[in-house]
Each structure stands twice: as structure tokens, then as C-alpha cells.
Amino acid sequence: MQEEFLALVREERERGCAIFLSSHELDEVERVCDRVGIIREGRLIAVERIADLLGKTQRRVSVEFAAAVDPADLRAVPGVADMQTEDGRISFRVTGDIDPVVKAIARHPVADLELSHPTLEEVFLTYYEEGAN
Fold it and tell me: Where are the domains of the chain?
């Protein structure tokens, strides 16, 4: 039944209808909605396109180089934070433009590379962290 409901929502959205959907199932919201509104303490604090909201958030990057690399090379790239090194792998978060990070990584032989985007739920939770605006 749930899949049928979501299919109906998608059909109506494609016809240009505005559909207001309140759900705590954020993976479903991400699959069928274009925009999301976030409410905290009874107040609407954000209304954004899901793609824009996800694009502004930090991505997790994990790279294993074929030879030793000084982590300072990556730490100096704008937007890089929370760097960790373990067993020849360098992991960090990046905010903003990913292109400078890709170019910095490409200066060295790469054995493995992982890039992960946060889920809508992870982004949603950042709005509820202490001190979040």
C-alpha cells in the first residue's frame, strides 16, 4: 500500500500539483518530494529544494593513496575539515566546492576513493543540534 501511495504522489507531482506531505520517513520524502520544509519548536525554519539542501552539506571523503601523502596537502584545501588518518587512508569532511579537493587528490596516485553524501535524515538532524540556526 505504501508504494502505491508514493506512486500516486509522484504522479500528481508530475502533473504539477502541489502536495503537502508530513512524514517522519525522510527516505520516502527524499524519493518523492522536490522541496522540504523543516519545523522546529513549532516554527518553520527552512524551506528548500531537497537537491539544494543536500548540496550545501558536508560530504565525507575517504581516500587511499598508492604511496604516502602528507595530509597537510589536503588539509590546506578550502572546505576540508575533521581529517583523520588510519592505515594509509585519509578521511575528512568537505563543505562547498568539491573541485579543489578532486584536483588536490589527483596530484597523487590513488588506490581507492569513496565519496558519500549525507541522507536527508542526516541533514534534518543538523537543524536540531544544539545551537543550530
Answer: 2-54+120-126, 58-116
